[in-house]
Amino acid sequence: MEKYYHIVTYGCQMNVHESEKIAGILRAKGYVACDGAEEADIVVFNTCCIRENAENHAYGNIGALKKLKRSRPEMLIAVGGCMTQQEGAADRLRKKFPFVDIVFGTHNLTALGDLIDRKTAQKKAVVEIGREEPVSDEDEDISFRTSYPNAWVNIMYGCNNFCSYCIVPYVRGRERSRRPDNILSEVSALLDGGYKEITLLGQNVNSYGNDMGGAFSFPGLLDRICERKGKYRLRFMTSNPKDFGEPLIRSIEKNEQICHLVHLPVQAGSDRILKLMNRKYTASEYLKKVELLRKIVPDCQLTSDIMVGFPTETEEDFRATLDLVREADFSTAFTFVYSPRSGTKAAAMEGQIPEEVKKERIMRLVEAVNARTREKSSAYLGKTAEILCEDFDEKKSLYLGRDEYGRMGYFKSDADVRGRFVKLKINDASGVSLYGDLVEE
Ligand code: SAH
Ligand code: SF4
Ligand code: F3S
């Protein structure tokens, strides 16, 4: 009899990619994917705790399985991901949801297969939260991917930066870089397998190699990857502005495979707030780096992460953020309301901002960001964009894919062009989406 798995993923690309690894482990144990928890023999929640609402989503959805678990006690429920690595989180989870069978930490992902065996052999729940960080992942074998023609490749794990608002260093541990040879062979196998876009993942890719005595650098890694010629795209995230500089910009300039789109989270525009955030750059330093990037790579687009409502943020601080949004000319940005994370420095700061003030500021910020996005989208009208077709949208009956700058383009096609680069003449733009007609080559 076939056994079914269902994975629910929250959080960043890192988690999306780790869910692919989880799926690989489950498939190796004979499970096959199904559409929902109802039919599943195992449901895995891969959680995120970056903001309170991410946690609440997961809590809500785990809680919703209580009834199903009562009617089908043999169904396994496993909870993994960042939420479980927080201090005392495993106990809290077990108390809140006694019907959960397996709790596993981000450092214990590869043990999931064994944990399932252990759980099957015993009645008691299995909890495995590693405090020791795995050294590296020399022979990481990713047998299953869900994102053709795009692929994610981890280049490093963890974070050393301790931005004062952020939980990631606590739940992901210190920076560990993968060896360049392992990364190169993974990328090379992906390209051999027909993948057309590779996104390198790390919390701060600019510190790649620092933990290996500086023997390797991120721009050096990019240059080595790009020695492999051919038509494909290379992206990376996230680049921390504090160590973003000319060597990386030069690498973007000289390697045609690297997309002219940089995600460079600024967080805030007020120097006082940036200092309290422990970001280690000022607004003008940030803007100088952006200027250098645009000087050397003139068509380069920029996206960002921006936060409102950090403790003590005044109206004047917030206006500095709005000013920076204008000056940096982001093509789009992710905007967040600051959410206190227990155990972080900022959560203990005085001057937490009332909810209504945060709400009012986020609305103004979103409007400022969207206005630029719309402007950038209308600049596409009448022009031709090169799209890597990723998928078919059943509801819209249109194919879709992104251009080099990350814009999503939708179009009609008689042939299935998934996995191919196509050219679109853009005739409509709404928000971040473009609509166009295929141009015959
Ligand atoms: N390593 C990346 C960020 C990863 S988290 C970097 O440094 O750029 C993604 C985004 O979530 C952050 O850029 C930040 O804008 C937001 N974020 C992190 N902690 C947050 C918190 N406590 N409240 C609200 N937003 C937060
Ligand atoms: Fe969090 Fe800062 Fe590390 Fe990014 S660099 S993951 S925001 S601590
Ligand atoms: Fe990512 Fe959330 Fe963890 S943003 S690293 S999944 S806390």
Automatic annotation (TrEMBL):
Location(s), subcellular: Cytoplasm
Domain (TRAM) ranges: 378-440
Residues annotated for [4Fe-4S] cluster 2 binding in this entry: C159, C163, C166
Its EC number(s): 2.8.4.3
UniProt superkingdom: Bacteria
Primary location: cytoplasm
Gene Ontology CC terms, in alphabetical order: cytosol
Catalytic activity: N(6)-dimethylallyladenosine(37) in tRNA + (sulfur carrier)-SH + AH2 + 2 S-adenosyl-L-methionine = 2-methylsulfanyl-N(6)-dimethylallyladenosine(37) in tRNA + (sulfur carrier)-H + 5'-deoxyadenosine + L-methionine + A + S-adenosyl-L-homocysteine + 2 H(+)
Domain Radical SAM core positions: 145-375
Cofactor: [4Fe-4S] cluster
UniProt entry tagged with the keyword Metal-binding: yes
Co-factor binding comment: Binds 2 [4Fe-4S] clusters. One cluster is coordinated with 3 cysteines and an exchangeable S-adenosyl-L-methionine.
CDD domains linked to this entry: Radical_SAM (cd01335)
Biological role: Catalyzes the methylthiolation of N6-(dimethylallyl)adenosine (i(6)A), leading to the formation of 2-methylthio-N6-(dimethylallyl)adenosine (ms(2)i(6)A) at position 37 in tRNAs that read codons beginning with uridine.
Family label: Belongs to the methylthiotransferase family. MiaB subfamily.
UniProt cross-references to PANTHER family, sorted A to Z: CDK5 REGULATORY SUBUNIT-ASSOCIATED PROTEIN 1, MITOCHONDRIAL TRNA METHYLTHIOTRANSFERASE CDK5RAP1
Protein name in the entry: tRNA-2-methylthio-N(6)-dimethylallyladenosine synthase
Native organism: Candidatus Borkfalkia excrementavium
